[in-house]
Design a protein that fits this description.
Elements lengths: L1 H19 L8 E5 L5 H9 L4 E6 L2 H13 L4 E5 L15 E4 L11
Parallel strand pairs: 1-2, 1-4, 2-3
Length: 111
C-alpha cells in the first residue's frame, strides 16, 4: 500500500511538472538525464508526439529499452549513454531544449 501511494504521488508530481512547466513553453526537444527505464519520456511523448525526446543514462540497458520502445511504438524518442561525471560536450543542447532529471541527481554524489 505504501508503494502504491509513493507511485501515485510520483505520477501526480510528474503530471504537475508537465502541465505547469513543460507544456507552457515552446520547445523542440526534451532530454531527461538519468532516464532509467524511460517511463518519463514515454509519458511526455504521449502528451505531445510532435517533439523529440532523448533519454540519457549511464546504463546501456536504458538505451536498449528506448530502442525497443521506439521500434514497437511510434514515439520520437532516442537514447544516449551519459556519464554525469564526464559531461559529453557533443550533446545537441540549444535554446529549444528542455532538460529534466527526475530521481537521478541523488545518485551522483561523490563519496
Amino acid at each position: 500500500e505504501c508503494n502504491q501511494f509513493a507511485y501515485s504521488f510520483f505520477k501526480l508530481i510528474r503530471s504537475y511538472l508537465y502541465h505547469n512547466f513543460i507544456n507552457t513553453v515552446s520547445f523542440s526537444k526534451l532530454m531527461e538525464f538519468g532516464c532509467r527505464p524511460s517511463h518519463n519520456i514515454v509519458y511526455f511523448a504521449n502528451k505531445d508526439s510532435s517533439k523529440q525526446y532523448v533519454g540519457l543514462d549511464w546504463a546501456h540497458s536504458s538505451q536498449k529499452i528506448i530502442d525497443c520502445i521506439r521500434e514497437n511504438h511510434s514515439y520520437n524518442i532516442g537514447g544516449h549513454n551519459f556519464d554525469f561525471f564526464n559531461f559529453d560536450e557533443n550533446l545537441n543542447i540549444n535554446e529549444e531544449t528542455i532538460i529534466v532529471s527526475i530521481g537521478a541527481l541523488e545518485q551522483i554524489q561523490k563519496d
